Amino acid sequence: MAAAVTARDYDVLVVGAGVGGMESALSLGDMGFSVLVAEKEPSVGGRMILLSKVFPTLDCASCISTPKMAAVNNHPNVRTLVYSEIDDITPRPEGGYLVHLTRKPTFIDPAKCTGCALCETACTVAVPDEFNYDLAARHAAHIAFPQAVPKKAVITRTGTSPCSFTCPAGVKPHGYISLVRAGRFDQAFRQHLEDAPLVGVLSRACYAPCEDQCTRGELEGTVAIRGIKRFMADRYYASHPAPEYGPPEARQGKRVAIVGSGPTGLAAAFVLGRSGYDVTILEAESEAGGILRWGIPSYRLPKDVVARDIQNITALGVRIELNHRVGSLAELRAQGFDAVLVATGDKGGRKLAVPGEEFAGVVDAMEFLRSINSGEAPDVAGKKVVVIGGGNVAIDSARSALRLHAASVRMFCLESRSEMPAHPWEIREAEEEGVQITNSWGVGEVQGRDRKVTGLDLIRCTAVFDSEHRFRPTFDRTIQERVEADVVITAIGLAPNTSAFTADVELNRNGTLKVHPETLATSVPGIFAGGDAVTGPSMIVTSIGQGKRAAFYIDRYLSGLPLDGLRYDDRLPVADRKAVAARAAEGGTSLPPVPILRRPAAARLQSFHEYEAGFSESEARDSARRCLDCGVCSECRECVAACPADAIDLGMRPRHETVTVRSVALATGFSPTDARKKPAWGFGRFPNVINGPQMDRILAPTRPFNAVVRPSDGKVPANVAFVLCAGSRDEQVGNRLCSRVCCMYSMKQAQLLMGSIPTADVTIYYIDIRAFGKGYEEFYQQTKGMSVYFTKGKVSRIEETDGQDLLVHYEDIEGGGGQKVARHDLVVLATGLEPNTGAFRLFPEGAPERDAYSYVREIDEELEPGKTSLDGVFVIGSATAVRDIPDTIVHSEAASAQIAAFLKRGEARA
Question: Are 548 and 520 in contact (CB under 8 A)?
């Protein structure tokens, strides 16, 4: 939950820390006023710091900006809040304004961060770098740019990726996928192990709810998350036959008993054992693993994989006592256990409750599967097998019977095909192997002869659920069918294995243990319960999540901490899948799924060997590369391991502050025109059509590339075109105003380009040149003198050649007229400037007036510069009109004088 901070008083709030905002903050601070600067980016500096040079002097933009950035960040009268958003500004009855703001989480403690950038080096996620206008990539963990002030790292997180958000066990698939993509396979395994110990089990027997939520599934097909997990688990276990670690040195001195060694008990034991508790698992069977060992066929889950996963738990010093059936929880407490977790799972299948069920040949599905897994498979060879049920246990039983050479296997279930609880891919594979599935039938009676089953009388099921979707099947007994059967396997549900504890703890009517839904505490202090004994039959991954949750609250209980007041699950909200898919579709990169190979159905039926092949390294990495990094940060925790200052704090959340200010200065700057508004010019479609800000980055000393090259292929451009008025003076894009500075920026870039590539041909396509300002006409003439071609012509469209060169179609206004075409290596669109209308949204009770072009309107530009229609609210620089850097600085000084006068008048009245 976000923290709230009480109000503090300031004389001035400056919104925006570009060159105008910094100049005003410093001026007002020097006058002795207390100033609060709020900047939404992680560094002060605004857009000027992104420039290569400033015209017409070609002085270094960074050399001018960085001293101001350092000064505003360290001024004694100025408090600078970077990475902060203003939520609203409302007037106070007594004067001044109440300001609500949010300090966005950086997920790195700025007090500890030294700016070493080791987190950036370790990060496994790359995203477009806004500092370089998306020309290159940056990492999710990053420092905004080399001259950033403050020079502190930030981790970009837009939410929890859907795959990670949906995992019931709290496993973070995005994390290990990003690590596999980066070739860090051992780290990928360890990252999963940190979240859940049964890595091998989940790589085979998990039904992958994460894949159902994968955003890539809305495009070409889901990422094969489970296949990637199997690759990393198999690879790790091949080189690590035993765990790398032992019991933790720090011990808690307290004992915990866990009843049951299924996925819930094993997961809880892992968490508690890792925390230094003395954990004993009490298992009634001869081998550990519960349903993992006895209930899942080997063709889906080999038993050596289960055994190796269990080593992950026992390596921590966890003891497993086999053949130990617990009859009393009170006795366990009496034996000195400080806490008990009941994780007994299910005891077996429910009965059909129909005549003839007692005949020989009618067998419970769990007994059937157990006998196979114990090496004592029943003889069904050559027999007609009928399976009753529509869930995964029924499917497992049917497919196992075929592997035992049954003559035929038929499945009948109450549900329609769309209602079947079995997973679609399991149903599909069962049918491939020869299982005949018939829907919407229930059992009326079991037929037999000499107390042996011979067949079934079936009745038509007309509905499985009632109007409130409760399980309440209805039948039409006038529609019946008789089928022959030598063996009937019933798989209609599982009953909780809790009857031994009725005298110890409170149970629900359905036989499950009654627990607190958040803490999993039972009615008896110190006794907790989880897994199928609480939830009823569920997925393995859900049971693991129950075990982890129980361990969390057992730890709190044994630590003497209250169970309430702290939530176990504090994830960020899920990332927006639709927005991520839309961005990916717009990017135009199609990556088809990497298929998982399976043996043909006929070959599968010859044994209980695994039929699904694992990925090769290249297949796993290719599949991982399809990940869209939905939440940006993958939570792989490599930054945590790399940071020497222990500064990473992924639990950081937004902090809200409320401040009071006497005046407000809006220095919100401008917005560059989106060149995609001119689709005929190819920006966003052709990689070598770029905009003016991108060209400035390519020419800057801190450029994204090692040299001045074009983005598509790293080729040094020999023929470059600049197209002026790209989105200014243009009714089509809604920007009627001339942006004034585009001409000079293009000429500056042309001169810098000629300096870097003296042999390049540079052409500027223009309608007219506006060079008003000190030294601007001389700069224009100087550019012409450097043999830059100035072509007066209106560009109509740009096309791309096979070699990614560009054909510029233009109307030749001065050179003879008519339509002409010129070929260039690189085209730069001199995009215009538009007003940043975000300033108006800050005032819910009445915003300052805007002018005809949607800039903040100055009441009297000449006599009272910066003053708006709201008392005490002023506007600075390009938030009020198109201005270049010198104009912005001059205007900010004038506005600062107006703000100071306003504050002094207020003091005099007081």
Answer: no
Query: 105 Cβ partners below 8 Å, 6+ apart?
Result: 157, 652, 653, 654, 655
Whether 744 and 884 have beta carbons less than 8 Å apart is answered as: yes
Contacts of 680 (CB under 8 A, 6+ apart): 796, 797, 798
Instruction: Please state, in angstroms and rounded to a whole number, the distance separating the CA atoms of residues 472 and 97.
Output: 62
pLDDT tens digits along 829-872: 999 899 999 999 999 999 999 999 999 999 998 899 999 999 99
Query: What pTM value is reported for the model?
Result: 0.92
Say if residues 661 and 94 touch (Cβ distance below 8 Å).
no
> What pLDDT digit, counting tens, does each position of 754-803 carry?
999 999 999 999 999 988 888 899 999 999 999 999 999 999 999 999 99
Q: Give the residue ranges of DSSP H helices in 617-682.
A: 617-624, 638-642
> Which run of H or E residues covers position 410?
strand 408-413
Of 272, 171, 269, 262, the C-alpha closest to 545 is: 171
CA distance 37 to 330: 62
With cut-offs at 50, 70 and 90, classify the pLDDT of residue 567: confident
**Quick check: helix, strand or coil at residue 685?**
coil
| List of residues 6+ apart from 51 with CB closer than 8 A | 61, 696, 700
DSSP state at residue 786: T
CA distance 215 to 166: 12
Tokens of 128: 């477009």
CB count within 10 Å of CB 545 equals 26
Indicate the length of the chain as a whole number: 910
| Buried residues in 336-353 as b, exposed as e (16+ CB within 10 A) | ebbbbbbbbbbbebeebe
CA distance 470 to 486: 33
Show the CA angle centred on residue 597, arms to residues 591 and 601, nearest 5°: 140
The DSSP 8-state label assigned to residue 832 in this structure reads -
- Give whole-number Cα distances, 570 to 160, 550, 573, in Å: 11, 16, 9
Task: Report which residue type is found at 168.
Answer: P
**Is it the case that residue 587 has pLDDT exceeding 80?**
no
Residue 481, C-beta contacts closer than 8 angstroms, at least 6 positions apart:
441, 457, 458
Number of neighbouring beta carbons within 10 Å of residue 116: 16
- Alpha carbon distance 869, 848 (integer Å): 5
- Tokens of residue 882, six digits: 């198109």
Instruction: Please report which helix (H) or strand (E) contains residue 446, including its range.
Output: strand 441-449
Q: Taking the CB of residue 6, how many other CB atoms lie within 10 A of it?
A: 7
Amino acid at 43: S
Which helix (H) or strand (E) element contains residue 780? helix 776-785
SS3 assignment, position 735? strand
Beta bridge partners of 729: none
Q: How far apart are CA 476 and CA 23, in angstroms?
A: 83
Q: How confident is the prediction for the chain on average, in pLDDT? A: 94
Two structure tokens written together for 76: 């004694």
Q: Can you tell me the distance from the alpha carbon of 608 to that of 399, in angstroms, rounded to the nearest whole number?
A: 10
**241, burial (CB in 10 Å: exposed 0-12, middle 13-18, buried 19+):** exposed
Structure token pair of residue 173: 């698939």
Distances (CA, A) of 463 to 415, 418, 857: 8, 13, 68
The amino acid at 417: R
Which residue from 137, 148, 132 is spatially nearest to 697, judged by alpha carbons? 132
Angle, helices 225-239 vs 303-314, to 10°: value is 70
- What the block records as the tokens of 351 is 């009965």
The label of the residue with tokens 């008993």 reads 257
